């Protein structure tokens, strides 16, 4: 521990505005050389990342396990495979994405033609977070490279094993003059934010999102802010209860123990249906409850704290933050399942609370951990008012067979994205944009949207010297207007 503190101090001392300036200058020179704009360079880098993921899969799984005790299955499905797919798609589609898009011109400009040309923005800064530290660092970088930019990535210091692995792997697999990694925390990020970038892509909390946006404003730098919020899950009584319960669990505890920006933050259901839903969740989470659940139907075994299929809380700070949420006055007696904790392993059992006070922290702050409050309402339509009383979430989920309710939900609930009858999966559809709205963020990426997030759509018009009517030139006379 002492050695790592010393290494941290040394790193801090060695990174200052001058160093950041040198890096930015080099990136700018590389970009200005035109190298990163070529199709060949872009594809070579994307292939490098693809190879890196194939060849170093074990190292990536190990780093994710060190940082979060992330189960290998989750590491593969939710991080490694997502990057493989993103690279594959970008390599396959890049020529098409780079092609100028012809558009129609008005008769008044005849003869003419016009097209939209996607041009790279220049040098871009990607600041990443710790919950999917591999995916959320590399995924935006794929978009930035595909669009032809030079990139600097700053991974999260809260997932140090993954951060350091990415820094080392990038040395080996991509062009280090145009794609760089700076490791570090607040100090290093603050220094980087003082520099002039052509785009900043930030993933993390709204608190820091505001700092990023303020820094970007000084240089009129555009930003993408991928933030979080409280994602509601509405459960109607007209559902397949077992499937709904499984998918809620999958979108909460099987997703990094709830440390996912699109994780179910709270459930809304009716007073009449709540007990059925809670019982179904119990059966799947709590082994052999009342002799009813079988080992096969149970997700986390006899003792969820010992389950290898659930990540731990990332660090002591977040562990204590979550305990405080559970221990607040008026909240602790609302726990109906779970509540067990293990500070040594940084684990908290899946915990369900029913009707915690509306003004409690667990109901007002993003939980980002394995606690799931259930809020009961008289009738399911009351969910609209409750959701609208909070900032717009990154994702909203609804479980129902009722078509009218689905339509009303899609029309009336504002959210970054939504998914009916499941959780999380919408963000694996690369034809859908992924991003927030309101306080859950601005801008979006994934698939072609990633390319566009790092491109400028340049309007280009072509004319010849023909058709030079005198009507547009002075002297202006009514006759010229045919009046
Ligand atoms: P964070 O904002 O604390 O940290 C993210 C990054 O910002 C890190 O790289 C960190 O070094 C840097 N940073 C932290 N403090 C800073 C400061 N004062 N000045 C400059 N830089 C600073 O966020 P977090 O705790 O890592 O992430 C949790 C939040 O991120 C949650 O709200 C979650 O919902 C959200 N999130 C969103 C997405 C998404 O894709 N929309 C994905 C994951 C997490």
TrEMBL record:
Record domain Aldehyde dehydrogenase: where: 19-460
Gene Ontology cellular-component annotations: cytoplasm
MF terms (GO), sorted A to Z: aldehyde dehydrogenase (NAD+) activity
Coiled-coil spans in chain: none
UniProt keyword list: NAD, Oxidoreductase
InterPro entries: Ald_DH/histidinol_DH, Ald_DH_C, Ald_DH_N, Aldehyde_DH_dom, Aldehyde_DH_NAD(P)
UniProt family annotation: Belongs to the aldehyde dehydrogenase family.
GO terms of biological process kind: aldehyde metabolic process; response to abscisic acid
Reactions listed under catalytic activity: an aldehyde + NAD(+) + H2O = a carboxylate + NADH + 2 H(+)
Protein name in UniProt: aldehyde dehydrogenase (NAD(+))
Class of enzymatic activity (EC top level): oxidoreductase
EC number: 1.2.1.3
SUPFAM superfamilies per UniProt: ALDH-like
């Amino acid at each position: 521990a002492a050695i790592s503190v010393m290494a941290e101090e040394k790193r801090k001392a060695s990174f200052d505005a001058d160093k950041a300036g040198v890096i930015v200058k080099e990136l700018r020179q590389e970009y200005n050389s035109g190298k990163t704009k070529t199709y060949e360079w872009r594809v070579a880098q994307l292939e490098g990342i693809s190879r890196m993921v194939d060849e170093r899969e074990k190292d990536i799984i190990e780093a994710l396990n060190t940082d979060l005790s992330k189960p290998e299955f989750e590491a593969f499905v939710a991080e490694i495979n997502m990057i493989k797919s993103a690279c594959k798609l970008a390599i396959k589609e890049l020529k098409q994405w780079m092609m100028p898009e012809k558009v129609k011109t008005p008769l008044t400009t005849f003869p003419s033609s016009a097209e939209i040309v996607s041009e790279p923005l220049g040098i871009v800064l990607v600041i990443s977070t710790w919950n999917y530290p591999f995916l959320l660092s590399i995924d935006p970088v794929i978009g930035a490279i595909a669009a032809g930019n030079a990139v600097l990535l700053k991974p999260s210091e809260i997932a140090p094993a993954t951060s350091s692995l990415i820094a080392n792997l990038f040395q080996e697999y991509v062009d280090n003059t145009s794609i760089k990694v700076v490791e570090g925390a607040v100090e290093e990020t603050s220094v980087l934010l003082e520099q002039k970038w052509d785009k900043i892509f930030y993933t993390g909390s709204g608190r820091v999102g505001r700092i990023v946006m303020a820094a970007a404003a000084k240089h009129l730098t555009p930003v993408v802010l991928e933030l979080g919020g409280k994602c509601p899950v509405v459960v109607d009584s007209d559902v397949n209860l077992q499937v709904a319960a499984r998918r809620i669990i999958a979108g909460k505890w099987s997703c990094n123990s709830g440390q996912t920006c699109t994780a179910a933050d709270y459930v809304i259901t009716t007073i009449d249906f709540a007990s059925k839903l809670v019982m179904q969740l119990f059966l799947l989470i709590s082994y052999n409850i009342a002799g009813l659940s079988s080992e096969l139907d149970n997700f986390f075994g006899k003792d969820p704290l010992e389950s290898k299929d659930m990540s731990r809380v990332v660090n002591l700070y977040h562990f204590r933050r979550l305990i405080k949420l559970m221990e607040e006055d008026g909240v602790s007696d609302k726990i109906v399942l779970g509540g067990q904790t293990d500070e040594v392993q940084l684990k908290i059992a899946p915990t369900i609370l029913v009707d915690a006070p509306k003004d409690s922290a667990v109901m007002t702050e993003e939980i980002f951990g394995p606690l799931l409050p259930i809020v009961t309402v008289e009738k399911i339509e009351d969910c609209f008012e409750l959701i609208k009383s909070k900032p717009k979430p990154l994702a909203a989920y609804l479980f129902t067979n009722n078509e009218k309710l689905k339509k009303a939900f899609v029309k009336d609930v504002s959210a970054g994205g939504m998914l009916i009858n499941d959780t999380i999966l919408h963000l694996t559809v690369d034809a859908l944009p992924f991003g927030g709205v309101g306080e859950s963020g601005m801008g979006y990426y994934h698939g072609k949207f990633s390319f566009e997030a790092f491109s400028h759509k340049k309007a280009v018009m072509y004319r010849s010297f023909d058709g030079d009517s005198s009507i547009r030139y002075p002297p202006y006379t009514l006759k010229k207007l045919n009046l």
